[in-house]
Amino acid sequence: MGSTLEHYFRNEINTKFINHYLEYKTIEDIKREWKKADENKDVYHENTSPYNDKFWGPITKYGQPEIIINSKTNKVVDDPRDMGTWNYGIGADPHTLLDVKPYWDYGNTPDDPTPQRKRVFGPKFP
To answer: pLDDT tens digit string along 4-48?
Structure first.
């Protein structure tokens, strides 16, 4: 992933996948059917709330969707600081290279106000 356009395009892919999925399923279905990330795997999605939980959808040949659900409100989180994004890389090394590193550099969207130090070290970093 070389450009900001490629990086931000993953949001369009993820949003279309999630919206299509939610035409037929509910938030409760996602929580039951998708894999919930361990707490240490969703820190980049807790900038606005510690109650944001990450769920990974089915792996496709193009990558993997993720959705962030706030466990207090049971709503999908779409704030640029915490939103779920399409994962191009599957596995630790590809995910770091293709998804995490560009997030550190560019944020989730052009309007993502998360300071870079928090993108790299997580929301608990001062």
So the answer is: 988 999 999 999 999 999 999 999 999 999 999 998 888 899 999
CB 68 within 8 A of CB 53: yes
Phi, psi of 40 (to 5 degrees): -75, -10
**Which of the 8 DSSP states describes residue 108?**
S
- pLDDT at position 113 over 80: yes
CA distances for 112 relative to 15, 39, 98, angstroms: 16, 22, 18
Q: Starting at the edge strand that comes first in sequence, how are the strands of the sheet with 35-36 ordered?
A: 35-36, 52-56, 66-70, 75-76
Locate 97 and state its tokens. 């290279």
Determine contact, residues 82/47, Cβ cutoff 8 Å: yes
Which value, in Å, is the radius of gyration of the alpha carbons in the chain? 14
Give pTM, 2 decimals. 0.92
